[in-house]
Specification:
This protein is 20% helix and 32% strand. The chain is built from three helices and eight strands; from the N terminus they run βαββββαβαββ. It has a four-stranded mixed sheet, with helices on one face. A four-stranded mixed sheet has the order 5-8-7-6. Helix 1 packs antiparallel against helix 2. The model has no long low-confidence stretch (mean pLDDT 93).
């Protein structure tokens, strides 16, 4: 059985690690937890998150990237804020390379969707996890 408190890593490819880092670090406020330059034949990577969180985002890129980003409308990273996203946060995200986009009737009602520089979607929900179902 898996311990429900197990940590989670969300891994995604990126065409431009510097642009993705700006979006998640300067826009969303994640911290750089780890960074590595790939050796010969290896990809570069950056891990971003909050120290106290049970999850982090790993982005891989560079010239040896095996798979390019192919985000779909359903590739969502949803953060439950418990209140509407603040205007300053949305401004930081767009200033850091994100773009606000419509998602669907459900998420447009309960949050705001911002595409990162690779096109992956970040949803900032005003709901809490307990009332999201």
């Amino acid at each position: 059985m898996i311990d429900p408190s197990a940590s989670i890593r969300i891994a995604r490819p990126s065409n431009d690690l510097a642009a993705a880092e700006r979006f998640y670090r300067d826009g969303l406020g994640l911290r750089v937890l780890y960074r590595a330059r790939g050796g010969p034949g290896e990809h570069d990577l950056i891990m971003l998150g909050w120290s106290a969180a049970g999850w982090h985002l790993e982005l891989v890129g560079g010239p040896h990237l095996a798979a390019r980003p192919t985000p779909t409308a359903e590739d969502l990273l949803v953060i439950y804020l418990g209140e509407p996203p603040d205007g300053a946060l949305l401004s930081r995200l767009t200033s850091a390379g994100g773009r606000r986009i419509p998602q669907n009737a459900y998420w447009d009602r309960w949050g705001v969707t911002v595409a990162d520089p690779d096109g992956y979607r970040l949803v900032l929900s005003r709901r809490t996890w307990s009332n999201a179902a």
